[in-house]
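Milestone 3.1: sequence recovery, worked example.
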């Protein structure tokens, strides 16, 4: 018998016709293979050696070993008992240990090019290296394409098993199909992506990404809303609420509640709900989702409603004394929704020509909607940002308690200016220059752990952008933009983990994207 492990101190015993190659070996040695611990190397072949036979003997005089169970007979046989129990790449059976192993000689590691056969396993020739395939042995501590684990690629360098630059790609394995105009939320541990427009059309699929484990997991589509783009979404602290949007038939008035704890969907009630729309604004009050404004395919809307997912009830929101609007922004704080900007319809004027520069406040009352407080009022005008639509707005929370408005489009210009609204003082503050290049269809998130707003991506007269900026709400200063690495896009999604921003998907021209990245300042 050929013995390829003499140098390793291992030996294969009792196989009369070992054939090179995994398939041949299994066929020729269907029973009785065994690897013994390191020790003196005997001859390349071995017979049973007289009465009592070989190492795993049913032997008889001069016979070869054919037993499929270990000697001693103590306890039940577990693991493999013959080569038919093993599958490539664990193709061979040690009938003494009842364990499958990969190799006896180098040629048996054909399925892992670049590895060597050592102690029955195909491994990299350098101890510090790991096989990542298709023919690579790499050091996971420094390899930028396999940093920390196989398939974890860095935009820049890898040091000590971690990406050394601020941007880190999301792992492509098991990621959802490429898409844009979808929705996304942060649950506290995962980013959930849902819906949008794919190359195959409108989709109702989604997935959750865990940045701690670098893993995607698909979410259920059973009872999920129909596929759509430009829907709205809020995270309640326990469930994801999706509503509205549009598909190939037009605007939609349906939605769904997704519970990640049970991986189940429940349809939102339609009775008493708002009319179909997209490009609307939504906020979460702590008990209700407020829907207001938007576009139904024919005109901008002034209507809205509040949805209580616990009781599955809609309550109407009184129309404000103002023009209708779409592509506006809204944030919620301390019982009020602050809406700003948007594209509106001026009676007697062109539908798409007006961009109101006034904001409004809607008062709510927690679990119940108080009709007496269902009133609208104007925000102060002094130092208010100029008229715009398709901009971003974020709420900082405590201790700042301000709304940050930035970017957008005014019908002729992509805006590079913003403002800070302080509800307690009813004042606006102009953001200091220099600010990022003007854009719309971008994303903005607030990292409350660092008091920073991060603006990224979007579209301008230059096309899709791969730039951004970091605004410090404490100092009213913009910092240099994050390094340009994930690639230009707009109509993408972004969520804040508190310490990092995760972006994903989007489009460039007619190309939809299925990649993403995590940015940690």
């Amino acid at each position: 018998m050929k013995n390829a492990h003499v140098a390793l101190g291992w030996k294969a015993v009792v196989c009369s016709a070992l054939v090179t190659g995994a398939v041949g070996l299994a066929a020729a040695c269907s029973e009785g293979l065994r690897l013994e611990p390191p020790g003196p190397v005997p001859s390349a072949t071995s017979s049973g050696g007289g009465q009592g036979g070989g190492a795993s003997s049913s032997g008889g005089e001069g016979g070869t070993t054919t037993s499929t169970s270990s000697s001693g007979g103590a306890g039940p046989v577990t693991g493999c008992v013959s080569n038919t129990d093993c599958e490539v790449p664990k193709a061979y059976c040690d009938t003494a240990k009842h364990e499958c192993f990969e190799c006896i000689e180098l040629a048996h590691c054909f399925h892992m090019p670049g590895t060597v056969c050592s102690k029955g396993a195909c491994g990299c020739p350098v101890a510090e290296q790991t096989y990542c395939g298709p023919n690579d042995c790499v050091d996971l501590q420094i390899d930028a394409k396999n940093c920390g684990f196989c398939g974890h690629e860095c935009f820049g360098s890898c040091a000590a098993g971690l990406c050394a630059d601020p941007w880190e790609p999301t792992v492509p394995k098991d990621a959802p199909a490429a898409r844009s105009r979808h929705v996304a939320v942060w649950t506290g541990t995962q980013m959930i992506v849902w819906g949008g427009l794919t190359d195959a059309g409108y989709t109702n699929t989604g997935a959750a990404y865990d940045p701690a484990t670098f893993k995607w997991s698909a979410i259920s589509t059973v009872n999920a809303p129909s596929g759509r783009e430009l829907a709205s979404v809020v995270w309640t602290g326990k469930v994801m609420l999706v509503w509205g949007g549009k598909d190939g038939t037009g605007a939609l008035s349906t939605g769904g509640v997704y519970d990640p704890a049970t991986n189940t969907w429940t349809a939102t009630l339609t009775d008493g709900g708002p009319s179909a729309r997209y490009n609307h604004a939504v906020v979460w009050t702590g008990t209700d989702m407020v829907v207001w404004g938007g576009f139904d395919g024919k005109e901008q809307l002034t209507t809205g409603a509040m949805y209580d997912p616990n009781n599955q009830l809609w309550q109407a929101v009184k129309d404000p004394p103002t023009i209708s609007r779409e592509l506006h922004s809204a944030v919620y704080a301390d019982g009020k929704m602050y809406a700003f900007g948007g594209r509106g319809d001026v009676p007697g004027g062109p539908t798409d020509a007006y961009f109101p520069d006034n904001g409004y406040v809607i008062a709510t009352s927690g679990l119940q909607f108080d009709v007496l407080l269902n009133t609208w009022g104007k925000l102060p005008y002094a130092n208010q940002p100029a008229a715009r639509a398709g901009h971003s707005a974020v709420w900082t929370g405590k201790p700042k308690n301000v709304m940050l408005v930035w970017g957008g489009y005014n019908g002729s210009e992509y805006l590079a200016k913003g403002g800070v609204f302080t509800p307690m003082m009813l004042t606006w503050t102009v953001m200091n220059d220099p600010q990022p290049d003007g854009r719309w269809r971008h994303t903005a998130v607030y990292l409350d752990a660092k008091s920073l707003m991060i603006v990224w991506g979007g579209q301008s007269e230059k096309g899709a952008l791969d730039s951004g900026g970091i605004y410090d709400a404490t100092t009213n200063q913009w910092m240099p933009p994050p390094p340009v690495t994930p690639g230009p896009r707009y109509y993408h999604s972004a969520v804040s983990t508190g310490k990092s921003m995760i972006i994903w998907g989007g489009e460039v021209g007619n190309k939809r994207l299925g990649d993403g990245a995590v940015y940690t300042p």
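The mean pLDDT is 82. Residues 22-28 form the longest helix (7 residues).
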